[in-house]
Amino acid sequence: MIPKEAGGGRIGLATFLDVLVATFGGFLLARGTQDGSVDLGEHVLTVAGYVVAVGFVNQVFGMWVLRGSLGKLVTGLLVVRAKDGGRVGLFRAVGRWLVGYVLLVLMVAFGEGDTVGQAAGVRTVRRADLRAPAPAPTPYGDPARHGGPATAPHGNQPPRPGAR
């Protein structure tokens, strides 16, 4: 069974943290590579390029290798395939990242939109929901309810021979 999608508040917090990671990571990389001879126009493009690069690494490689970006992992979320709950592959992670930018523009423009993950065939779920063991199915339900033998009264151990 595939868990339902995590709540919007937790996903929003994870997205906010991912934006912070990309922004500060991009600024730190740009600052470390600046030699002071670049004018402001080139500096803005450099920072923007680094922000996009850090966001790509965080989102795509984080999802592919760790099953979630840094923001998702901090908030206890994981990204799984919507179809079967399995691991997200590299190409699907890249697709989700690209679809995310397009949908983000549409959501800002129109004020509404579906989740980015569902559009790319992935789902963001709570880590606790994914790790919760599914109840073991019995072929016909509870045997005692259908006239079959009930469970043993002493911890599922058969009675000793000669015991009453």
Automatic annotation (TrEMBL):
Domain of life according to the entry: Bacteria
Sorted UniProt keywords: Membrane, Transmembrane, Transmembrane helix
Location of region: Disordered: 128-164
Positions of transmembrane segments: 12-30, 50-70, 90-110
Main location group: membrane
Boundaries of every RDD domain copy: 19-108
InterPro entries with a match to the protein in the record: RDD
Membrane topology classification: Multi-pass membrane protein
Entry's localization field: Membrane
GO cellular component: membrane
Protein name, as recorded: RDD family protein
Originating organism: Streptomyces zhaozhouensis
